[in-house]
Amino acid sequence: MDEKKAQKFEIAAFGAGCFWGVEETFRKIDGVIDTKVGYMGGNSKNPNYRDVCSGETGHAEVVKITYDKKKVSYEKLLEVFWESHDPTTRNRQGPDVGEQYRSVIFYYTPEQKRIAEKKKKELEKSGKFKRKIVTQVVKAPMFYKAEEYHQRYLQKKGLNVCH
Question: Which of 73, 79, 93, 162 could bond to 21 as cystine, CB 3.0-4.6 Å?
């Protein structure tokens, strides 16, 4: 990709439960150029799926999104994030339980942080959720790409959802 094209793309990362379904949700949005699933926010280098599932590394399963900001806004990505999972359940999404399934927004810029925190406060005040929102808003640490068999897992299996 040449440098001029790269300048119009931005990166976002979200954890909202099992990364298979989260990736599939974001992959279908017009303006999303690429998705990768992986691990962020833990305390060890180069974790693999088994490490993360052990609950010992502290990583979250995430989707890292490259998007064209001229076609889709960060605000729109956040809207999809909030609608695609329950941000009031700590370390759980549906049948998936564990710290790796936590609700988390990893921000790459001060602007992303500002927008994410503002939207979280607006949602808390709106009454849309009956319980407190537990979503973390955290500066993006190192992203560790998950094993290849996890990339576009649902698409490879001909599925749209996990459960």
Answer: 162
Per-residue confidence band for 49, with pLDDT thresholds at 50, 70 and 90: very high
CATH number at residue 122: 3.30.1060.10
CA–CA distances in Å: residue 78 to residues 3, 51, 57, 72, 161: 26, 28, 26, 11, 20
Q: What pLDDT digit, counting tens, does each position of 101-122 carry? A: 999 999 999 999 999 999 999 9
Q: CA 13 to CA 106: how far, in whole Å?
A: 5
102 located within any domain: yes
Q: Which amino acid is at 95?
A: P
Q: Which residues form the catalytic set?
A: 18
In a domain, 150, yes or no: no
Query: Which structural domain, as residue segments, surrounds residue 58?
Result: 3-143
Closest CA to 39 of 27, 31, 50, 24: 50
Residue 31's alpha-carbon distances to 9, 41, 71, in angstroms, are 9, 26, 5
